[in-house]
Specification:
With about 220 residues, this protein is mostly helical. It has 10 helices and 2 strands; from the N terminus they run E-E-H-H-H-H-H-H-H-H-H-H. It has a two-stranded antiparallel sheet. Strand 1 and strand 2 form a beta hairpin. Helix 1 (about 20-30) packs antiparallel against helix 2 and helix 3 packs across helix 4. The chain starts with a strand and ends in a 9-residue tail after the last helix.
Length: about 220
């Protein structure tokens, strides 16, 4: 299968069908048949795509964490959680596997965001010196926006509360970069149904929040 890149909502290219697509599916099939060796082979084969997926979610949804946490540590933590999950959960398709991966990456970042918020609440709040030049201020003042981090944290926590079809459509479009037409084909739905599910999902996620740009 030839490599085919699609664009995530943030504009990044994510390889959806790449030369390893059939290999990943074969490993998923072996895993479902009880071949435990397929689990590590699957994770090794998918590592670079996991890293790109983590980078996209990290950079665009949790930018306030970047000054304090390395991408590799996020990927490694998500990798371990995904490996543990695959002991009991056997995704039937490659898309389902990466939806599970996105779920684990999201939870790693949400845990980091919650930990950072707790630390921030414990820090003494020094009065701001508006007379100081911006270059002289602490780096954290320009790289960490507590309000924005709280917004994105709440937004991504709400994904877990969506109805199954809404969550599937949201995750496949927002995290995996699949087009609505591709989602319709993969899930056996009419394109208009996918559009309605996307609108319903984003409406619920943004309800009561200063909505981030997720179009």
């Amino acid at each position: 299968m030839a490599c085919r890149d699609t664009l995530a909502p943030n504009g990044d290219a994510l390889a959806v069908d790449d030369p390893t697509e059939f290999q990943l599916q074969a490993l998923l099939d072996r895993l479902r048949e009880g071949d435990e060796a397929a689990r590590d082979a699957l994770l090794e084969r998918a590592y670079e795509r996991l890293r790109r997926l983590a980078s996209t979610i990290f950079r665009y949804s949790f930018p306030g964490l970047q000054a304090r946490h390395e991408l590799d540590s996020v990927v490694n933590d998500a990798w371990l959680r995904l490996r543990q999950a695959l002991a009991t959960v056997h995704p039937p398709t490659v898309e389902d596997f990466f939806r599970l991966a996105a779920h684990k990456i999201r939870h790693v970042l949400l845990d980091l965001a919650e930990r950072q918020s707790r630390l921030r609440r414990r820090e003494p709040q020094a009065p701001a010196d508006d007379s100081a030049p911006s270059s002289a201020r602490e780096p954290s003042e320009s790289t960490y926006d507590p309000a924005r981090l709280a917004l994105w944290t709440e937004f991504h926590r709400r994904v877990e509360g969506l109805a199954d079809d809404e969550r599937a459509v949201f995750e496949m479009h927002y995290y995996l970069g699949l087009t609505q037409a591709e989602i319709a084909r993969l899930r056996g739905l009419e394109p208009k149904k996918v559009s309605r599910l996307w609108i319903a999902a984003t409406d619920k996620l943004a309800e009561g929040l200063p909505a981030p740009d997720i179009s």
